[in-house]
Amino acid sequence: MKNHSQEYISHTVPIQSATFTNQVNAEIRRAAETGIYDIRGGGAKRRVPHFDDLLFLGASVSRYPLEGYREKCDTSVTLGTRFAKYPIELDTPVTIAGMSFGSLSGPAKEALGRGASAAGTSTTTGDGGMTEEERGHSTKLVYQYLPSRYGMNPDDLRRADAIEVVIGQGAKPGGGGMLLGQKISDRVADMRDLPKGIDQRSACRHPDWTGPDDLEIKILELREITGWRIPIYVKIGGTRPYFDTTLAVKAGADVVVLDGMQGGTAATQDVFIEHVGLPTLACIHPAVQALQDLGLHREVQLIVSGGVRTGADVAKAMALGADAVAIGTAALVALGDNDPKWEAEYQKLGTTAGAYDDWHEGQDPAGITTQDPKLMARFDPLEGGRRLRNYLKVLTLEAQTIARACGHNHLHNLEPEDLCAVTLEAAAMARVPLAGTDWYPGKSSF
Amino acid sequence: MQTFDLGKRSLRELNETLHAQKSMTNQTRWKIVNAKGNHAIAVGLDAPITVSVMGSTGYYTAGMNKHAAVNIYGSVGPGVAENMMSGIVTVDGDASQYAGATGHGGLLIIKGNASSRCGISMKGIDIVVHGNIGHMSAFMAQSGTLVVCGDAGDALGDSLYEAQLFVRGSVKSLGADCIKKEMRPKHLKILKDLLKRADADAKPEEFTRYGSARKLYNFDVDNASAY
After folding, report:
1. pLDDT, tens digit, for every residue of B179-209?
2. Which long-range CB contacts under 8 A does B181-190 form with residues at least 24 apart?
3. Which chain A residue has its CA at the smallest distance from B218's CA?
4. Is the pTM of this model over 0.90?
5. How far apart are CA A73 and CA A200, in angstroms?
6. Which of B32, B57, B64 to mutate: most A Cβ within 10 Å?
7. What CATH number does residue A77 fall under?
8. Which residue segments constitute the domains of chain B, with CATH numbers given?
9. Any chain B CB within 8 A of the CB of A57?
10. How much is the ipTM here?
């Protein structure tokens, strides 16, 4: 028989730790069972200050807008005007970021080329070299020059429209890469001069130069080999954007590509992705400041990447001083990556649509981040190209809509004055006023 | 023989002139005088021509060479013949760091010594060094052959893939996953051929072969301390 006093004793409600969350504990258990860190693709998934924390002010009495459908708002951009004889001219400032053949299938690379070309923009190779699919279908192709030099050869260098010297990427600044053995098909192995089936490590730094003085000479060599015809970009991960931009420009870059921590990778350690580097929003102002201090803002172009998803993101990056943006993860989603139509298969892999990030394992149900012929056959490069073209058009139209609403007849006329921030953190990082004030952290009140 | 004076004309003119030589050119022999340590001399050549560089050079001499024979009558700075695809590059003196880095093919001959990271990430090139090589040579070397007639520094062949290494003298230390291997007749044959082509005064039997233990080819947490 129940005691009256026991029945009415109050019990402490179970409290989940904010430090040791279920997710954290699950990762501890996984690590304890497997003895290996988690490797995944994509960029930072944690919430960090981002373009969502900025708003455009729009026009009113003090600014007048352009008619949304009738008045011209130019979107063209020219990249590489500093030294190259033939700069790259694009219809839209939204470019496709470097992604490797090996990480992606040949048809996926073809689709990126098709979509980008139809939208009037450039695409970019990646680790592993240039494939015929992407060269053949890309009107403007940027050739990445990477530490691994997998597939690197002077013939491809000469048939590129620009060269991008990759020093770092936002997902893993200071880190190299790893293409696991299961994705090393005969073709991938042949292009990389390595045996089939072994893990292929990509070095974290270049094998034949160290430091900005060497980089200047390396850029000289690349220019001499290509006859000073094509632009040379330098890609940096978001770490110390003021100094890195300054040094890249000093070394002779025509274009600086700046990738924040939301920028994706094919594969690296989760701890690296989530804990190293700066949010994209925090990178832009210091890089623009560096270019302005050098007197080269707009003469050396700045491409920003890492978490660009919408035309609003494009417009915000440009208002902060970027000349163009690059998309990677968003382009894959446009092609069909993480599409809910494959949900049953994502479930079999222990994940769900939208969260799938084990791109390195080569089992992508959408047939994009794989070298498995059966999975690759699911992906139609023509349809993928059409979808990417549509998506790029929408990004451009959205950015135009915002620019017109702010009274600008070119996307490049967007400026920080068009923006406000809805959080203190975003205001501090972007150096735009907190909404409803004329102040941002660090700005003197006087 | 055509003579190009780098004291009177620019590097850009030099490389532009050499790039203009196609496979059927009758101007097959070139002499470059007053090299004076310039960087990027004779880079990106793509024709079966012979280029003689009189004097020492800076970075990336004969970088990304295809088909050409480039002879440097002096010493070279970092990255000589980097990413070479084919042809022959011969250095009369010493070579600085990264000699033959990432080379895919061809033959690099260094008649003096080579500094650190010789043959780093090599991908098919053959390199013969008459003298010694520095530390971390053949780091992550993928394929091709490195022959050292003298001694090798620390961490030879660290994280080696399928490149073959032959050293006649001492090796200060081997890098991770690089081990001494048995010399078989086919290796002696490769060595004999390379030594002959490089005009090196050494016998194949005097060399020791090193290669990959292949234990790091697929990630294993129990090997973490070796990475």
Report:
1. 999 999 999 999 999 999 999 999 999 999 9
2. B181/B209, B181/B210, B181/B211, B182/B209, B183/B207, B183/B208, B183/B209, B190/B145, B190/B164
3. A199
4. yes
5. 46
6. B64
7. 3.20.20.70
8. 2-226 (2.160.20.60)
9. no
10. 0.96
